[in-house]
């Protein structure tokens, strides 16, 4: 098991060796290695509460860079723990994925999730992709020039690691991503629906999922997309590894979740249309915001949810959507 060594800040945790030893005793040092060997497509035992009551004190309101061994590779991620963190309380975990050519720090700044985490008391992890054949950082979502590593395994390993080292609520683990990170979030909804409660995608470029998309349960999904997006066109791009139109991709999720096939508009103001698909199985929700003329960016304008509540930023609405859903675990 790896222990937190905070880098990129003035805080050094090397003097806390005794705490690390005690944490190792409490959580079981061999567990992480076993978790790394689990297939990402198999049923995964949830490591509930392993990190609770551990003698860990995070620095106040800072984000830190960390590494994790996964699939024989040293993988990086950025972690933000709210300054109110207490190891006796189970916290939601949000995983936020950067776009192609981006990185974890950029995603933290673009999304503003770390600031919101301080207000709403949740933990945020910003996993970082690897360098692909095009010499840019990204996620393995299908295109030939993108990386080809087991990113799903990395996320699965990261969730297990954070559950063992922090007090994470296994019922409230969420994923969100931008662009290529949004496409990868879609893959996680297909492959890790048994660990992730709900997902939110911003300007995602969707490609056919290797091995097919067969989620183990209906999963709630929120999507934002601009009709003026020239990087990931709203109406699809067959020249880019068969990117489908956004409504075609959404319809596929509507069918998987067993929702009514016709969406219900609930908000239209200015350039923004909000619609959702109703009566999905297991209380799942599929929701979409179409931004007329919107570009390939993380939206910052005001939004209204299906209950008429206004939000100043897309990030606030994303958290509202995610936290409304929890994972029903098998008994």
TrEMBL record:
The keyword Secreted applies. Its main location: secreted. It is found in: Secreted. Keywords: Carbohydrate metabolism, Hydrolase, Polysaccharide degradation, Secreted, Signal, Xylan degradation. It comes from the Bacteria. PANTHER family: FERULOYL ESTERASE C-RELATED, PTHR38050. This is Polyhydroxybutyrate depolymerase. It comes from Ktedonobacter robiniae. The lineage of its organism: Bacteria, Bacillati, Chloroflexota, Ktedonobacteria, Ktedonobacterales.
